Amino acid sequence: MPLIQLTNVSKSYTDPGSGAQVPVLRGINLSIDAGESVAIVGPSGCGKSTLLNILGTLDLPDSGDILFDGDSLASLTAQQLAAVRSQNIGFIFQLHHLMPQCSVVENVLLPTLALKSAPADALQRAESLLEQVGLKDRMNWKPAQLSGGERQRVAFVRALINQPRLILADEPTGALDENSAEALTDLLLQLQKSSGVTLIMVTHHRAQADRMGRVLTIHEGTLQ
Ligand code: ADP
Ligand code: ADP
């Protein structure tokens, strides 16, 4: 069974000028298996973030259905969707969105507060993941004391802390220089393989997209 399956998903936005409906995604069919690494590419404004937000249940399609692990999300309440998200999905964005007043390890542990009961081994898990990304000796530092690449590594560890089934990454290397971007992609893929998590990443960098297991291109609202 696929981890996530989209059937005939469409999404339009209202043009604020003319008031017309502008289609962004048109009848998207997509099936992603557990453990896959998938890149989503396409020109700016083609709908990559819209698709990622729908995959992450942050946004709802106008029509079509989404199955997560075989269960339809269409009939869930906002609260039920939030529960699906916090238990199954980790997010990384272009900007790290770390809390500046919290230390590295406190930032990493924040998503565990959204769970009904935080796992007893959360701190050990945070330390182990920080070690795997080379930041264990900085777990009590503040985000401002880290480089851009190091902050994104912390954001990645935070996305993994609840042992999600799926990581959604929206241009995670977009604000980094080339070397840091490549190093972060190495780490993402290394941890993705060792943990078996499914990774879906929006990227502008073709070279990084080609390192993923599958590349999807959005063209005129459909996938190629
Ligand atoms: P990409 O990530 O590929 O750059 P987006 O998914 O962000 O593209 O946006 C696709 C199109 O949808 C753009 O034309 C954008 O202006 C429009 N759009 C995205 N979000 C909204 C919104 N909340 N309201 C209105 N239009 C939106
Ligand atoms: P990058 O090339 O990734 O942007 P930087 O030049 O920003 O890296 O940082 C290089 C190193 O210096 C990093 O390991 C970072 O942790 C450390 N560093 C950066 N800013 C500070 C700071 N304000 N206090 C302590 N260490 C810092």
UniProtKB/TrEMBL annotation:
<dbReference type="InterPro" id="IPR003593">
    <property type="entry name" value="AAA+_ATPase"/>
</dbReference>
<dbReference type="GO" id="GO:0005524">
    <property type="term" value="F:ATP binding"/>
</dbReference>
<dbReference type="InterPro" id="IPR027417">
    <property type="entry name" value="P-loop_NTPase"/>
</dbReference>
<dbReference type="InterPro" id="IPR015854">
    <property type="entry name" value="ABC_transpr_LolD-like"/>
</dbReference>
<keyword id="KW-0547">Nucleotide-binding</keyword>
<dbReference type="InterPro" id="IPR017911">
    <property type="entry name" value="MacB-like_ATP-bd"/>
</dbReference>
<comment type="similarity">
    <text>Belongs to the ABC transporter superfamily.</text>
</comment>
<protein>
    <submittedName>
        <fullName>ABC transporter ATP-binding protein</fullName>
    </submittedName>
</protein>
<dbReference type="InterPro" id="IPR003439">
    <property type="entry name" value="ABC_transporter-like_ATP-bd"/>
</dbReference>
<keyword id="KW-0067">ATP-binding</keyword>
<keyword id="KW-0813">Transport</keyword>
<feature type="domain" description="ABC transporter">
    <location>
        <begin position="4"/>
        <end position="224"/>
    </location>
</feature>
<dbReference type="Pfam" id="PF00005">
    <property type="entry name" value="ABC_tran"/>
</dbReference>
<dbReference type="InterPro" id="IPR017871">
    <property type="entry name" value="ABC_transporter-like_CS"/>
</dbReference>
